[in-house]
Every structure is written in C-alpha cells, then in structure tokens.
Amino acid sequence: MTIEQFEKMQTGHGFIAALDQSGGSTPHALELYGLDATSYSGDAEMFDRIHEMRTRIITDAAFDGDRILGAILFEMTMERQIDGLGTAEYLWERKEVVPFLKVDKGLAESTDGARLMRPMPDLEHVLVKAVLHGMFGTKMRSVIELANPAGVEAVVAQQFDVGHQILDAGLVPIIEPEVDIHSPEKAAAEQLLKPALLDRLAGLAADEYVMLKLTLPDEDGFYTDLVEHPRVLRVVALSGGYSRDDANALLSRNPGVVASFSRALTEGLTAQMTDEQFTARLDESIASIYAASLT
To answer: Is residue 213 flagged as an active site residue?
Structure first.
C-alpha cells in the first residue's frame, strides 16, 4: 500500500472493476464472453481462457486509471503475469489502477436467512502473498437473503472478524455483506444491515479504515451516513444481477457511492469481437459506469 494508492481510493473519481470470477462462476463468465465449454478442456484450460479475457480487458486502451480507481482480482490472476509483470504490479505500474484481491473461498449453506463465508484456513498465507504482490486491499463476500436479525448479525460479525486479520496484515478490507436483490425482504434486510455496520465501525481504531461493498439500496441515499463515516475509505456498489443500465440508474441516485461492477462491466464483450469493436464496447461500458459513479 502506498500513500498515492490510499489518496486515490479516498478521493479519486471513478469506480472499481471487479475481475474476480473464481472457479464456480468462471464457466458462466466465459459463456457470456462467447466461449462455451467446447472452448476449453478441464480446469487448467478454463482458467487460461479467463486470464486471456481479463488480460484483454486490462491491457485495452479504454481501461485506464483516469476512470478506474481499482480492480479486484482472483488469487490465481494475482499469481499470473501480463506483459512480463505480475497482474497486480501491471495494474498499478502501467495503468495506475489500485489492485485488490478476492480472499473468500465461497459461500456456506444458508442459515438464518444468510450465507456466511466458508472457512479460510490459509488466509494468513494468502495475505502474505498479497502484500508481496503489492495489493492495496482485499475483498470477501457474504450474502443476506432474508431480514433475519440473527443472520444479518452473523454476516457482519464474520466480515469484521476477518477484516481485523486483514487490517493487521497492512491491507484494507472490502467488507461485502451483499443483500440478495431477489429477496422478498430486501428493504427490511437493509434496515437491519446498516445499524449492524455502524456498530462495528464504531469499534475500529482511529488509524483503521475499511471499504464497504453493498447492494444498491431500495431507498435512495440510504447509505449516506456510511459514505461519510470517518472509518470508511469508500462505499462501493455491486451490480448484484442488475443489467448495466439498471445498475447505473440506481447508482446515480446514491450520492458518494461508486460502482464495483463485474458482470455489468463486461456485459456485451465477446471473444469474437475485433480489437476495434472490443475497445469501443469496453469504452462505452466504462464511460457509463464512470458517469454514474460521479454523483
């Protein structure tokens, strides 16, 4: 972590590109990119294809640090190279895009209307590697499905317990307690989530900062007090299954919140496009998400 990276994340204009599809979500990401299961044989080739997709995005002229604050990477992506540099090093040294690492190992089964993170027994080792690769921070995702106080509290408690380990490693954690956009109790779950987050934030030391990655709320501006909280470096929004147009429209109604989109960012990009078509489509996507993140 550098002072320049910290200042960019705190005050810079732009958004975070979520390029962290992992094992379970990789086949669907590749399918949307125009590569079905016949395009690879086995996991090794599948991960080669997804790295080629990410490399094409990251090295494209449209992908630049003027509009993109940071990028979230899968662990295997961090360990691979782009143009002779580690992916994280390439992002910062060539693009001035701040690198983050996805550290969770996926979701556990639903309990009390929520899905906690699976155990992360190798987290300490992963954090050491993240520091060596120049990562600024990490990201980890849980999912809240219902407005169950026990489930919401369990999600927030786990996120901040792991977050403290990440802070101790010298990294900034992105706390991501996603609220399922299809939940019949979405608004009520958000009403439980915000005070639980505020309570945990109050326990952070004056020199400890976290970022929050949240589902776009039903009530416009609902997370403004989190945006303005002194311990929150940035509040970013996940697209959560919304189309890019819908996600941008919702984002633009939440001042101070910036995007951290995955599928909405890569929507419409395919392996079959010419370089000119690919750049044009990516530039259009980045421009629209950037504009929505300026409000």
So the answer is: yes
Instruction: For residue 138, give the CATH number of its domain.
Output: 3.20.20.70
Which of 66, 57, 67 is closest to 87 using CA atoms?
A: 57
Q: Please check the confidence at residue 23 and state whether its pLDDT lies above 70.
A: no
Structural domain total, the chain: 1
pTM above 0.90, yes or no: yes
**3-state secondary structure at position 260:** strand
Terminus-to-terminus CA distance in the chain, angstroms? 27
| Helix and strand numbers, DSSP H then E, in the chain | 12, 11
pLDDT at position 137 over 80: yes
Annotated catalytic, 153?
A: no
The catalytic residue among 176, 178, 186, 190 is 176
User: Domain range for residue 26?
Assistant: 3-292
* Average pLDDT of the chain to the nearest whole number: 95
